[in-house]
Amino acid sequence: MSYEIINPEDLGAPKGWNNGMLAPRNGRILFVAGQAPSDETGVVESADFVTQFSLALARAIRVVEEAGGKVEDIGRLTIFVSDMDAYRSSTPSLGAAYRALMGRHYPAMSLVEVSRMVDDNAIVEIETTAVIP
After folding, report:
1. Which has the higher per-residue pLDDT, 80 or 27?
2. What is the pTM of this model?
3. What phi and psi values does residue 25 have, to the nearest 5 degrees?
4. Cα–Cα dist 101/22, whole Å
5. Could you tell me if 15 and 104 are in contact, meaning their C-beta atoms sit under 8 angstroms apart?
6. Maximum Cα interatomic distance, the chain, rounded to a whole number of Å
7. Which of 54, 57, 104, 119 is the most core-located residue (most Cβ within 10 A)?
8. CB neighbourhood size of 117 (10 A)
9. What is the DSSP string of the chain?
């Protein structure tokens, strides 16, 4: 599927995301719940920020794939973190981890710092919205 990327010039050039993604007509919207960085038993094992980010993103992508979609169908990505300093200090490694899973596809994104996650061992949670053709 192909989104029309919407980046108004007067907002400045985004880096690593797009301001808007306009989906084509007649797609099905998939709302993916926040995915914690847990294994198949629900356990969060790693305390490493980049590892947790990769696991949470991989789980969100897996839901999209199960619905018949692919990474390029993701139009919105919301990242919740409980430690903004850990996020900021991990950005070079996060970029590589992101590209390993998402390639050069950059949906509309938000990053939100929260005080806690449901799982006390989680410091990252990721949710997505995709339009499946």
Report:
1. 80
2. 0.89
3. -65, 155
4. 22
5. no
6. 47
7. 57
8. 19
9. --PEEE--GGG---SSS-SEEEPPTTPEEEEEEEE-S--TTS------HHHHHHHHHHHHHHHHHHTT--GGGEEEEEEEES-HHHHHHTHHHHHHHHHHHHTT---EEEEEE-S--SSTT-SEEEEEEEEE-
User: Residue with structure tokens 């797609």?
Assistant: 27
At 68, the amino acid letter reads: G
Predicted confidence at residue 82, as pLDDT, reads 97
Task: Say whether pLDDT at 39 is over 90.
Answer: no
Task: Please report, for the domain that includes residue 12, its CATH number.
Answer: 3.30.1330.40
Which of the residue ranges 36-45, 46-55, 74-83, 103-112 would you say has the lowest mean pLDDT? 36-45
Return the structure tokens found at 52. 């947790």
* Straight-line distance from the first to the last Cα atom of the chain, in angstroms, rounded to the nearest whole number: 6
- Go through the chain and tell me how many residues it has: 133
CA distances (Å), 33 to each of 15, 61, 74, in order? 25, 11, 13
Residue 16: per-residue pLDDT:
84
Report, as an integer, the average pLDDT of 58-82. Answer: 96
Domain of 25, in residue numbers = 4-132
